[in-house]
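hiii, so i know i said id send this last week but things got crazy w the move. better late than never?? heres the sequnce for the chain we talked about at the cafe, plus the structure i predicted for it. fair warning i was half asleep when i ran it
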Amino acid sequence: MPKKILALALLVLLLAPLTGAERDKPFNVWGCGEVFALSPVTDGILLGTGLALSGSDLILDNVLEVNRQKYKGQKYDKGDVNSIDRYFMHSYSKSRDKAADFLLVATMATPAVLAAKGKEEWLTCGVMYAETLLIANGIKELTKLAVSRTRPYMYYDADTFPEKDVDDGDWANSFPSGHSTMAFACATFTSYTFCKYFPESNWRLPVVAGSYALAAGVASLRIMSGNHFMTDVLTGACIGSAVGFFVPWVHTFNAKHDDVNLSLLGNGVSFALKF
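okay and structure toks below
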């Protein structure tokens, strides 16, 4: 999943400029959006942070294999689990696991509704979304490496374990829920940006309710599939929601300031500096 998230974020960054400009219509790059605007400083920091976080995880997890614990047949007692998490525990379910993956993909596609704003905003939305994905992914993956927690399905019969996850050490990376983190990051990003772009739209409630319903479905299925405890998904939801709000919110401070303006034209580049 981390590699797929990183690839998706980079794809968004690469495609956004290509889809955002018409030949004879200027396409603003930074400093002049009415709601959100890019900034070389702000976006340099956010993109750098996201790439550093997600890149560090790829190195620590895949190269150095940090926190790759080997399962040695030990048995786990449900009595050692706190009462809240124990109440919602489930054994592993492959069908629910796959359903959570499907819903996550659907949730990650919700920012497509922002295309209604017009091509002049596509680059801004694309960059902000890529930053959201990279930062949320990096935070939750590095937290997983730092915190070792046995997944709920390990408290049940060994013949129900997902063999692949047990073999590669993922059975000990329960906290926090990565699916929930990414789902709520996407839902919050979509909800916040849509409401800011279309404050009077009758579609605000359907967009917000639909986005969060998908995210809640992902979180519920991660519990019901035996992959996570309740506290795992709640923590993931908090991390994702915070990142999904913070990234576009920061870009509101760049809006309506046109002292620096870089625009892409169909046949060239326009740069303006006012002082």
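btw The CA atoms of residues 187 and 211 lie 5 Å apart. thought thatd interest u
miss u guys!!
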